[in-house]
Design brief:
5 helices, 89 residues, alpha+beta, three-stranded antiparallel sheet, 52% helix
């Protein structure tokens, strides 16, 4: 399958800078498997919650990751890949 070239090379360059950090690339890879909360990511990555939150914030600010609070218990935050930004959908 052939994909069209990116329409915004600056956005692509920004994403590459963000993903140059191996932990962020690993987090994005894990999120490509499905929606996860940061506690699940923490279990897999063996990282502290504040460091995971930092990496997730950078990914969110770059537009690569979406977040959604649990409707019943707002303490739970779920993260997923921003499929629209990545052209997956």
């Amino acid at each position: 399958m052939t994909y069209p070239p990116p329409t915004n090379l600056q956005t692509l360059a920004d994403w590459l800078k963000v993903l140059a950090e191996p932990k962020r690339l690993l987090i994005l890879n894990l999120l490509m498997e499905g929606i996860q909360c940061n506690c699940e990511l923490g279990d897999y990555l063996d990282m502290g919650p504040s460091l995971i939150s930092h990496h997730l914030r950078v990914l969110r600010e770059a537009g690569l990751v979406d977040m959604e609070r649990d409707a019943v218990d707002g303490r739970w935050i779920y993260y997923s890949v921003n499929e629209v930004a990545l052209g997956v959908v």
